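Repro:
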Amino acid sequence: MKKSSLAVLLALAVASMTVPAHAGNIALTGHDDDFHCFAANAACAQLGALVSFARNGSSLKVLTFDAGGELTSNLSILGVAFTNVNPNSGVTASMFDNSLYSAFIVASDNTCGGCDNNAAGEANIAAQSAAIGSFLNAGGGIVGLSGADSALYYSFVPQTASSVGGAPSNGYSATGIYGISAVNGDATHNLFWNPGTHGESSFFQIAEVNSSGNETIPGPAAATLVCKGCTVSGGVIVGSATPEPSSIVLLGSGLVGVVGAFRRRISAR
């Protein structure tokens, strides 16, 4: 095998790990940041970081689904331009327009004890799964806030995230990725199963953990999940700009095999 052939194989292996340039970012947190954001507190800082991550450098405004006024009020505090839709009044596919919006954000479920959205409105959003998938694949971002005790809240996510309601108010720490900080002291949260388990996409990364977990999920448990440059097909996340650990291992194994074959070929000459 010539060196040029080896280089081609290596290039193909790396290319197989890439995703389309316009894939979008997803950020999900068990914190009801919209309910607890006041001025420059930790909830506001995290909300701002999640929105920034989802927008991925775009200057386009965001689309919000908020049946009340908490999320929209906080975005005004953060200086983020938005167009709001009350999901209880209906959600259409045309709303998910990449030429108008950099991302869409769903306000927390009202089982948090003071948040705005309810199951009916969330179902209206989730019903537009095809449009949401197209929006993500074209570079649009998604932010989901607290699902609290609603098991179906995250159904609007292209691959539904498995959340578990009930979580401690403290014990949270950030993992340090994408500038997303931790929030402690809030009264109501939910946690997530770790990526790659219980139906959670393995393409998610953990941005924040809780040390103790809850009655269902042992600690350290995922409290905030992100997916960088995600693509979806058939209701499943099929790729990410950040390869899942197992994919990295497979890529490494493949490269080792290619190099080994090359060395054996040279030695046989």
